[in-house]
Specification:
The complex is a heterotrimer of chains A (167), B (706) and C (590). Chain B is α/β, with parallel strands linked by helices and 706 residues long. Chain B has 28 helices and 18 strands. Chain C has a 5-stranded mixed beta sheet with strand order 1-18-19-20-13, sandwiched between helices. In chain C, strands 3-2-6-4-5 form a 5-stranded mixed beta sheet, sandwiched between helices. A 4-stranded parallel beta sheet of chain C has the order 12-11-14-17, sandwiched between helices. Classes of the chains: A alpha+beta (167), B alpha/beta (706), C alpha/beta (590).
Chain lengths: 167, 706, 590
């Protein structure tokens, strides 16, 4: 697929979402952004400019809103999106070590995506699974009571699986 | 099954245009408006079926809240299905919410016809077969049992303890959580069969909005979100503000790190929240309501959506509810992740599609809120208290609790405690009861150090104050606050300076960034704490002096932040630091003066050693060390160069022979100075500090204003 | 002619009821419901602020104005605290002072501290507060934020390291100007003010009005300086350096040299410019007269021939960019006249160059303007002639003050001089361009003459005068009913355009000034500008008009001469070639 086609495809997705909000009121902004991100994985510039035109809002306003909330990303996600919980319970049970391990293993910082596009890392506010601390979440699936060693094993497993898939 | 959910039976003549005002009563006691009863079964047997007092085949309940799913409930269900299929056993699998004992997830309850329901703990997929095999053989596997539910209509299992006698449940008073983990949250009938929506139905018939406000005020219900403002009082302000439109907002943006009460309530008993919202909206005259819920709670959102749909079908939400002339439309707004949106005006801005930045009050939201209209914002737990409160009356409610705090409070108990999970206790219960009895104390033989209550706005309470009673005022006297209900237990391996640093890290990131004291002040406090926990090896120039200065001005800074911040987030932001400073000053002093972390948490203050007798010279540690601080020839004993070591502990993690150990104690400051004089070590601690003295700056004088 | 005014005023919400409050032990009268800060100000009690903007909803962000109020547990921000009867306030208690000082120290903790080199070193609000509160050392040491200066735009420079996030620029840009080029981005301690996607200003919808600079308490925002270019040209013997000064400059610049607001120092200004070494000193008001001739003729022409109406003025470059970006459907409504600055620039490099026999490329043409958008305007493609810009450099009033100080000039003791001919003679109508309504008033005078052949009996058109943001009137000339509107502040303009888009059709001519109040409150004026000073400057312009001898553009002999000698008549081909242009829709990139 060429770049042009990708852009066009994205455009239609955003357009379709916008048609669901015909009045274009300001309070629809966050739901629209959530919907766009759910469909595209992140908020592209084109999407933001388009939403701005639809709602009659300056792009700076939308960018300001989107950067205010943790949920929104401006980069595509990795194939495996790893969320590390930074709640109190997880911290007390040494989630820092888990995060450090992930940083070292993946060689990326939270908010970034590995160059091969396989992993993206995110630190999230408490996921509310404090009873299972420390937890990480890979593509929506929880992994409880993590340790650095378990984390390394998990990453290796995912890499192996991805490789098998690739071959 | 009912053909038209808006009526009690097919003989009923009510229509959606003319709804039955007695629907709930008819469903519970048989039709009131007509004689003929067209149900195939009697009301009693129908209710018994819905309450599952009687079942005609095996029912398996699986705790499938977020915590249960996290512990593997999905796999457990799969294993259950395949076991049932393999053995040709007919059974119903019901996915219920969380009963609260997260550490025992996945929880599986089994109910055989005629017998009581028995709960089994930690049924991961591999335990499914042994459990089911035993059940099939008519045996209860005692090693897996948590307890049996009490039900006089069923015959109990002998030798199986009752769940309500279990130390986790016995001291609890479950008003809000009463249905959680017991009923199918996806079926409104089960909620109604257990008396749900009766309070709403009666309230709409019997009370004016002003009366409802009065009842709630008399009951002494206070906001469960943290502040503790009297709910009835807040309602009255909104009720008495004239407007063409008013709003009710349910705050389910549970952003406290370490709290998950709201999620559990919505996942386990969503209709309780909806009923509470309907009562509250009626009391203030709102016809539109929003549930502002974290997008990180997909399961809760899904259940809530379904519950709203069902309630609408039953005419319990929507137009002309139970023919009372009261309309209510409930919308879900997904929060996009910002802790500060727990603040009322920030939450309003967020719903309006703006940055969640608080604005000055007055005007208060109850006067001018969402879309400039009077708006009442209540937390999930506050609203979920209403059905029982209105159902039983103000006196019943206020009979439980302390002088100023009535009713119960739900806590999310987590951290270094044997039993973690969701706990609901009467106000006035001591923290010791919660931590030691319900939580079962500290695991692994460790010593209790503190319990953190109230999240980033609260404080850490030490052992000597563990007998503090839980109520809004008592907690303040020990430097904490009720908060929304996170209780995180800490043991001797927790460093209190690190905990304070964790909360400041959180707050400076989660501050909305609008007002200077909160935005800059919390960052400054974090920087001060970072300096305290930074190893002297990485200190340069004047940084040692800055470390001292920071500590000196920290209290003053904290006071100003509390005194001048725009919203509650900033006004309470210094609490974690102030409370740890108050109760654990010795730990701070160990960090500042002795440059050591007693709990061994602050990595930069740690030093590792390799025990020569154990080292096999494998070199694994060398390859993992990020700072190349380990030297040694292959197959020979290795050494750690102390000046290069950053204390990350990677070497200790990988060492196959456990030769890497935390050095027992950092040498005291004086020793360092001595060593420095003799030239034994390069990094020196003392002279930097004295630089300031040479310039004639007295530490004391520096805090003088003029 | 008769004029009927339809001035719109926003209703005040405060009640007239007075209450008594106690401040620092003494009784103070206040109005029920007004903010405490307003009451304190009226009583002569100064409480410092960093984020307060007159007439806008309080944001309560900086917390500098906190005071002690009996009955409140915490300190209370006086900007957002409504006054109630019997309130007892302590404004400068030790607790309040300590809080203010600490808050200021927090802001200073990671400030760049390059005050010696900062463009705002003589009028920085932060520096003044630090002095006032007795900050003597850095007690809170904050890690410096490493952020790059945004030098991308032709008019503005943003230095985010000096930004204290008071948010005034964001609010002015959105709430007053309706542009919203910048916003708060990020959250918590990582909050910053930025253009969408953290891009440069040049890619944004910024109209370069500079109102953000005017409200910025620190050196975080400044104009793109042309001082060096001007100084280089002045010392280059090859260059023939001419300067023009805008109508509002002479009634403003005196304030910076110790004269009271509203003093007109035209003579001193000319003398000072000559002293600086400019070869010719011209008056932009002459070109304003020229603009009036062209614009009034264009209006009459449009009315007579059924051209696109309402016609809108085109003197204010921020407004032009605003229309190009946000209301491209109104581009045809814009007068095709260039702004006075560009007209004079074009005349200098053509007519003047020809007459003086100087090659246009040897002329370095400087304009002293109350405006930052003029810096953008002079570089526009439309404003080049065969690759040579009509105007080479623009100095704001602020920059000129700096240059004069640099040269150690004792401004007040200079001997007043008159501007050079032929472009130094102006009518007082051209001078009125400096205030909102001035273009309209001047144009009405000339349009009346063009339509009737006679001057108005009373040249003063009261309905378009004053500071009000939107002024509307109907003119009845020779049985013709003409609807006019005068707008300043683009938020006001936007609302009017929305009305027209929605079908309003009773207007024929609209004057729009980007800055609220017009050029006398322009984005290039001194930082000391406040509402009172702006009103005084406006009165000074009216005084000049009242006392002037030539009060209409068409009555200006210099104008008559240039038409006779060079241009022919208004809207002639030569005029079109030099004095008119066309604008185009502009896509905002972010």
């Amino acid at each position: 697929m060429t770049d042009v086609e990708t852009t066009q495809e994205k455009t239609t997705v955003v357009d379709r979402i916008l048609t669901e909000y015909p009045q274009g009121k300001r309070d629809a902004l966050i739901p629209i952004l959530q919907e766009v991100q759910a469909q595209q994985g992140y908020l592209s510039r084109e999407a933001i400019v388009k939403i701005g035109k639809h709602l009659g809002l300056a792009a700076s306003k939308i960018y300001g809103v989107a950067t205010f909330y943790n949920q929104f990303r401006f980069q595509p996600l990795g194939k495996f999106h790893i969320q590390v919980c930074r709640g109190t319970a997880c911290h007390v049970k040494n989630s820092t070590a888990v995060l450090d391990t992930l940083r070292r293993e993946l060689k990326i910082e939270p908010g970034e995506t590995t160059r091969d596009g396989l992993f993206s890392l995110e630190v999230v506010a408490c996921v509310g699974a404090c009873g299972l601390a420390p937890v990480i979440c890979v593509n929506g699936e929880f992994y409880a009571s993590m340790t650095p060693a378990k984390t390394r094993r998990l990453i290796e497993e995912i890499r192996e699986r991805a490789e098998e898939h690739g071959n | 099954m009912e053909t038209n959910p808006k009526v009690c039976c097919s003989a009923c003549w009510h229509t959606p245009e003319k709804p039955c005002p007695e629907l709930i009563e008819c469903l519970l006691n048989g039709s009131k408006c007509h004689d003929a009863h067209a149900h195939s079964e009697s009301v009693e047997s129908r209710l018994a079926r819905l309450r599952r007092d009687e079942v005609d085949h095996m029912v398996v309940y699986v705790g499938a809240g977020t915590c249960g799913l996290g512990a593997g409930a999905r796999k457990t269900i799969r294993a259950l299905r395949s076991w049932l299929a393999r053995h040709g056993v007919e059974a119903e699998i019901v996915e219920v919410g969380c009963i609260g004992l997260c550490s025992a997830e996945p929880l599986v309850d089994i109910q055989l016809p005629g017998r009581t329901r028995v709960a089994f703990a930690s049924i991961t997929e591999e335990k499914v077969a042994p459990l089911m095999d035993a059940i099939a053989a008519g045996r209860i596997p005692h090693e897996m049992v948590l307890g049996q539910h009490r039900n006089p209509k069923q015959s109990p299992w002998e030798t199986v303890p009752y769940l309500d006698e279990h130390p986790f449940f016995a001291p609890q008073k479950r008003w809000v959580l009463t249905n959680c983990g017991l009923i199918d949250p996806n079926r409104i009938d089960e909620y109604i069969a257990r008396g749900g929506y009766r309070a709403l139905s009666n309230t709409l018939k019997a009370n004016t909005p002003a009366e409802v406000c009065n009842i709630v005020e008399q009951a002494g219900l206070r906001g469960r979100g943290g502040g503790g403002f009297p709910t009835g009082k807040k309602w009255k302000i909104a009720l008495n503000t004239a407007s063409d439109q008013k709003y009710l907002v349910c705050n389910a943006d549970e952003g406290d790190p370490g709290a998950f009460m709201d999620r559990a309530v919505i996942e386990g008993d969503p209709h309780r929240l909806l009923e509470g919202m309907a009562i509250a909206a009626y009391a203030i005259g709102a016809t539109k309501a929003y549930v502002y819920i974290r997008a990180e709670y997909p399961l809760a959102i899904e259940r809530l959506k379904r519950a709203i749909q069902e309630a609408q079908q039953y005419g319990l939400l929507g137009y002309n509810i139970l023919d009372s002339g009261f309309d209510l439309e409930i919308n879900i707004k997904q929060g996009a992740g910002a802790f500060v949106c727990g603040e009322e005006t920030a939450l309003i801005h967020s719903i309006e599609g703006k940055r969640g930045m608080p604005r000055p009050r007055p005007p208060f939201p109850a006067v001018r809120g969402l879309f400039e209209k009077p708006t009442v914002i209540n937390n999930v737990e506050t609203l979920a208290n209403l059905p029982a409160l209105l159902g039983n009356g103000a006196e019943w409610f206020s009979a439980v609790g302390t002088e100023t705090s009535k009713g119960t409070k739900v806590f999310a108990l987590s951290g270094k405690v044997s039993r973690t999970g969701l706990v609901e206790v009467a106000m006035g219960t001591t923290l010791r009861q919660v931590v030691m009895e319900i939580g079962g104390g500290i695991p692994n033989g460790k010593r209790f150090k503190a319990v953190q209550i109230g999240g980033p706005s609260g404080g850490c309470i030490p052992e000597q104050h563990l007998d503090t009673r839980i109520d809004y005022e008592s907690l303040k006297t020990v430097g904490a606050m009720m908060g929304s209900g996170g209780l995180v237990v800490m043991d001797e391996d927790t460093c209190m300076v690190d905990v304070a640093k964790f909360f400041m890290e959180f707050i400076q990131r989660e501050s909305c960034g609008k007002c200077i004291p909160c935005r800059e002040g919390t960052l400054r406090m974090l920087e001060i704490l970072k300096r305290i926990t930074r190893g002297r090896r990485s200190e340069k120039g004047n940084e040692a002096l800055e470390r001292f200065m920071g500590v000196l001005y920290m209290t003053r800074l904290a006071e100003v932040i509390k005194d001048t911040s725009l919203c509650g987030l900033g006004q309470t932001a210094p609490n974690p630091v102030l409370s740890t400073l108050r109760w654990f000053r010795d730990e701070y002093e160990a960090h500042v003066y002795e440059r050591r972390c007693p709990a061994g948490v602050c990595t930069e203050l740690r030093t590792f050693e390799i025990e020569p007798d154990l080292c096999e010279g494998c070199g694994l540690c060398v390859s993992k060390c990020p700072t190349a601080a380990i030297v040694g020839l292959p197959r020979r004993i290795h050494y750690i160069v102390a000046d290069k070591c950053i204390g990350c502990g990677s070497c200790a993690d990988v060492c196959p022979s456990h030769a890497v150990k935390l050095a027992e104690e950092e040498p005291a400051a004086a020793t360092v100075a001595e060593k420095a004089e003799s030239g034994a070590v390069r990094s020196i601690f003392a002279p930097d500090v004295f630089e300031g003295w040479h310039e004639g700056k007295s530490l004391l004088r520096m805090d003088d204003d003029q | 002619m008769t004029v009927s005014a339809e001035t719109k005023r926003s209703g005040a919400t405060e009640s007239a009821k007075t209450v008594t409050i106690t401040v620092n032990g003494r009784s103070v009268e206040a109005r029920q419901g007004e903010m405490l800060l307003t009451a304190l100000k009226r009583a002569g009690i100064r409480v410092p602020t960093l984020c307060h903007l007159e007439n806008l909803f309080p944001s309560g962000a900086c917390r500098m104005c906190v005071v002690e109020v009996d009955g409140f547990a915490n300190l209370v921000p006086s900007c957002a605290c409504p006054v109630t009867e019997g309130m007892s306030v302590k404004t400068h208690s030790p607790r309040a002072l300590r809080a203010r000082k600490t808050i200021l120290e927090l802001v200073l903790a990671n400030h760049p501290d390059d005050c010696l080199y900062c463009v705002r070193n003589d009028n920085c609000e932060l520096r003044a507060l630090a002095a006032e509160l007795g900050v003597r050392q850095r007690r809170y040491v904050g890690e410096r934020r490493q952020q790059k200066e945004d030098l991308s735009s032709p008019a503005l420079v943003r230095d985010p390291e000096k930004c204290i996030l008071c948010g005034k620029c964001v609010r002015v840009c959105e709430e007053v100007q309706g542009v919203g080029a910048i916003n708060f981005v990020g959250r918590g301690s990582a909050t910053r003010i930025a253009v969408a996607f953290d891009e440069g200003i040049n890619l944004s919808s910024c109209i370069y009005c500079g109102q953000c600079i005017m409200v910025c308490p620190t050196g975080a925002l400044r104009e793109q300086s042309h001082i060096k270019e001007v100084m280089d040209a002045l010392k280059n013997p090859e260059k023939f350096v001419v300067v023009q000064h805008a109508p509002s400059v002479s009634v403003t610049i005196g304030e910076e040299f110790g004269l009271k607001p509203g003093a007109d120092v035209e003579g001193l200004l000319v003398a000072a410019l000559r002293e600086l070494g400019f070869d010719r000193v011209f008056d932009t008001a002459f070109a304003a007269d020229l603009t009036v001739m062209e614009e009034a003729s264009e209006l009459v022409h449009r009315i007579k021939t059924g051209g696109k109406l309402p016609m809108m003025t085109s003197c204010s470059p921020g407004w032009i960019k605003y229309v190009e970006e946000f209301y491209p459907d109104f581009i045809e409504n814009l007068s095709t006249c260039k702004s006075p600055q560009q007209m004079l620039g074009a005349i200098i490099k053509n007519y003047f160059a020809e007459k003086q026999n100087i090659a246009p490329e040897k002329i370095f043409s400087v304009a002293v303007m109350p405006c930052t958008a003029k810096k953008f305007e002079c570089g526009r493609m439309e404003m080049l002639h065969e690759g040579i810009p009509d105007v080479d450099a623009v100095l704001t009033t602020r920059e000129l003050v700096r240059v004069l100080r640099m040269r150690g000039m004792d401004f007040k003791s200079l001997t007043p001089q008159v501007a050079d001919t032929p472009f130094g003679d102006r009518s007082t109508a051209g001078k009125l361009f400096g205030a909102t309504g001035g273009v309209m008033e001047a144009a009405v005078r000339t349009a009346h003459y063009l339509l009737t052949g006679t001057d108005l009996p009373d040249l003063k058109v009261e309905a378009v005068r004053g500071m009000t943001g939107v002024k509307q009137a109907r003119l009845h000339i020779e049985g013709k009913d003409i609807g006019i509107a005068v707008v300043s502040g683009l938020g006001n303009a936007s609302r009017l355009l929305d009305e027209i888009r929605a079908g309003r059709n009773d207007l024929h001519f609209i004057e729009v000034m980007t800055c609220p109040g017009g050029c006398i409150a322009g984005g290039g004026q001194p930082h000391s500008t406040n509402l009172n000073a702006v009103k005084e400057r406006m009165q000074a312009l009216y005084r000049i008009d009242r006392e002037g001898t030539i009060r209409t553009a068409h009555g200006n002999p210099a104008i008559k001469r240039i038409y006779q000698e060079f241009l022919g008549e208004p809207l002639s081909e030569k005029s079109h070639h030099l004095l008119h242009t066309h604008y185009h829709k502009r896509d905002v990139l972010v």
